[in-house]
Amino acid sequence: MTGEPRPEPPLFGKVALIGMGLIGSSIARALRTLPLAGSVVAADRSEAVIARVRELVIADETTTDLAAAVRGADLVIACVPVGAMGAVAEAIGPHLKPGAIVSDVGSTKGSIVAQMAPHMPAGVHLIPAHPVAGTEHSGPDSGFPELFHGRWCILTPVPDTDPDAVERLAAFWQGLGSKTEVMAPDHHDLVLAITSHVPHLIAYNIVGTASDLETVTESEVIKFSAGGFRDFTRIAASDPTMWRDVFLHNKEAVLEVLGRFTEDLIALQRNIRWGQGDQLFDLFTRTRAIRRSIIDQRQDTADPDFGRNRK
User: Fold this and answer.
1) Is 307 helix (H, G, I), strand (E, B) or coil?
2) Burial per residue of 158-197, b for 16 or more beta-carbon CB atoms within 10 angstroms, e otherwise
3) pLDDT at 158
4) Cα(57)–Cα(109) distance, rounded to whole angstroms?
5) Are 159 and 19 in contact (CB under 8 A)?
6) According to DSSP H, which parts of the chain are helical?
7) How much helix, strand and coil, in percent to the nearest 5, is found in the chain?
8) 35 in helix, strand or coil?
9) pLDDT value at position 267?
10) Exposed/middle/buried for 9, CB within 10 Å: 0-12, 13-18, 19+?
11) Bridge partners of 37?
12) How far, in Å, CA of 248 to CA of 82, rounded?
């Protein structure tokens, strides 16, 4: 005997990842160097995606058969668009082992519970989750293991979920570098409507407005893009399938926030029309403080040009 300490067993024996886009491939890459999974199975219904995953060597096994992927898995994470969650749950439900944890990475949670819960067999723990991290890129080549570092992952367990299972999933995301918080699915959907969903909708809309403006040519929009419009285009470049599903599956919260936003926009329009500079200054001062708070909590950088490389 050497006297050296034995390595601790991984947190989960087998982890199955369904959907190998940005989030799925980032999880897979991170798990290659972390003691969180004994083995990783990557599943995707696209033959082309799975072929690329094999080339990247970011999983121990690869398959297009979702049922085969989840057999014997201790943790299953669905990394597909929100609108596809029900079909995935139906395909994998009969093949899940008792005690398995089933989760997801979608940015709506109420609809995830509605789609997936009916297909979960007794003894399986459904714990929806949302890693609040991402880029405008998609596909297996877009992932990177540091994606979740310092970001929040929100867990939204259904009622009566085993607390130990919630703690294990939280430990998994913490192992990937995330901070975790637990909240109810409907509250999550309202919070994300204001912090993510409506801002994306505004970005899509302003870029679409610019492209439709007949008095400004497309070449001028591209050539003279100032920082604000340029940042809108980055957000508006996000995966269209994913965001179509987000808005259709979180429409109540999005419409509620859009209503409030519309009212505030009309008030702002009135301030400008009537030259109410004090009101504008007060608003801009409050919003500047929010930006500083985001930087203080390390959710963005204060580097010049937002940390972009101009070269």
Assistant:
1) helix
2) beebeeebbebbbebbebbbbbbebbebeebbbbbbbebb
3) 87
4) 31
5) no
6) 22-31, 47-56, 66-70, 85-92, 110-116, 163-175, 185-192, 198-212, 218-223, 227-236, 240-249, 251-273, 277-296
7) 55, 10, 35
8) coil
9) 92
10) exposed
11) 12
12) 9
For tokens 């040519």, name the residue: 217
Instruction: Indicate the DSSP class of residue 214.
Output: T
What is residue 170's predicted lDDT score, i.e. its pLDDT?
A: 98
Amino acid at 215: T
Contact 192, 185 (CB under 8 A): no
Separation of CA 12 from chain center? 22
Output the CA–CA distances (angstroms, integers) from residue 296 to 100, 246, 292, 293, in the order listed: 38, 29, 6, 5
pTM (global) more than 0.70: yes
d(CA 130, CA 182): 10
**pLDDT tens, residue by residue, 34-61:** 999 999 999 999 999 999 999 999 999 9
Cα–Cα distance for residue pair 10/245, rounded to 1 Å? 34
Task: Name the residue among 209, 199, 260, 192 with its Cα closest to residue 231.
Answer: 199
SS3 assignment, position 5:
coil
**What's the number of CA atoms in the CB half-sphere (13 Å) around residue 287?**
6
Cβ atoms within 10 Å of 207's Cβ, excluding its own: 18
- How does 60-70 read in b/e, with b if 16+ C-beta sit within 10 Å? bebbeebeebb
Q: In angstroms, what CA-CA distances link 212 with 205, 216, 255?
A: 10, 9, 24
Q: CA separation (Å) from 34 to 8, 30, 92, 132?
A: 12, 7, 26, 20
